[in-house]
Structures are given as C-alpha cells and as structure tokens.
Amino acid sequence: MDFASEILGYKDLLMNYAKKLKHQNIHDAEDLFQTTILKALTNKDKFKPGTNLRAWLTTIMTHQFINEIRLSKKRDQELIESPDLRYFSGAQVPPDALSNLNLQEMSKSLTSLENILSTAFILHFEGYKYKEISKKLNLSLGTVKSRIYYARERLKILCSRN
N or C: which end of the chain has fewer CB atoms below 10 A? Predict the structure, then answer.
C-alpha cells in the first residue's frame, strides 16, 4: 500500500480531531485536515516506517493548529499597532471591525496598567506559558499567575468604562 493511501486511512480520525480543535467549525476543520495531509505528503521522507503513523499525523495537525493560533495572534497584534486606514477612506467596512476596535481599546487600557502587571500579561497574550514567563521575568510561578489574573481583572474594569 502506498503512503498516501495509508494516510487517507486515518481520514475520519483526523477530521474528528480537527473538528475538536476547531470547535466543530466544519470549514476550518477541513482546512486544517487538508493542510495536515499536504504537510504529511511533502514530508513523507521524515516518517520512519514501522512507527506510529496515526501519532505522527496527529502531531502534525496539532503543530499546524498551534502555528495558526500564533499567526492569528501576531496578525491581531499588528492590527493594534498599525491600523489599516484604507477602510476609512471609502464605504468599505471590514467584517471584523468591531473586534479590531475592541483590540485597540484593550491596547490603550494595557498602557494604563502598571508595568509590573502588563509585562506578564502581554507575554501570556503572546503565547508564552506561565513557566516560560516565570523564568523570563525571574519570578515564582504563583506570582506570574496572580499578575496575569489581576491584569485581566483590571482590563475588564478599564474596558467597561470606555
């Protein structure tokens, strides 16, 4: 049996896993599934025969999903830092304009937080894990968690005032 046929034998399993990752959004799950299959086929030389193909495929899918989240956060951050003014020149309104405004408000609120809270929160928002933030800021894990919690609570208050 060729490699592509073996991979497609896991189609149902991979689609169910993709739906779970994408919170039952069929279109996004299909995109994730297709990207996973494409990556598996292009990297088939890295698969070691005799090892667990299912685990290899789900690992590829998991990493692809995480990369999409990181890319999405990066795009959101770029929107906060440099808004695209072309939407304001005509009648065009981006479909996610409301969420962009919320992100901009949140960015303004972040600048009003004390640096001690905002640093930990921003690192967590960028995708760092609590342990990574703890090491980076040379703080205990509990301190990092509490600073992120208090930053969230203060942001809720600040954003509700606006």
Answer: N
| Domain final position from 13, 48, 78 | 78
Exposed, middle or buried, 120 (CB in 10 Å: 0-12/13-18/19+)? buried
> Environment class of residue 33 by beta-carbon count within 10 Å: exposed (0-12), middle (13-18) or buried (19+)?
buried
Say if residue 18 is in the same domain as residue 72: yes
Question: What pTM, to 2 d.p., does this model score?
Answer: 0.47
The domain of 57 spans 3-78
- Asked, for residue 109, whether it belongs to a domain, the answer is yes
- Asked if 121 and 151 count as a contact pair (C-beta separation under 8 A), the reply is yes
Q: What is the pLDDT along the chain (162 residues), one digit of tens a residue?
A: 588 888 889 999 999 999 998 888 888 889 999 999 999 989 888 988 888 999 999 999 999 988 888 887 776 666 555 444 444 434 444 555 444 445 555 566 666 667 777 788 888 877 888 898 889 889 898 888 888 888 888 777 766 665
**76: phi then psi, degrees, rounded to nearest 5:** -60, -40
Domains: count for the chain: 2
Q: Is residue 121 within 8 Å of 113, Cβ to Cβ? A: yes
- Does one domain contain both 112 and 71? no
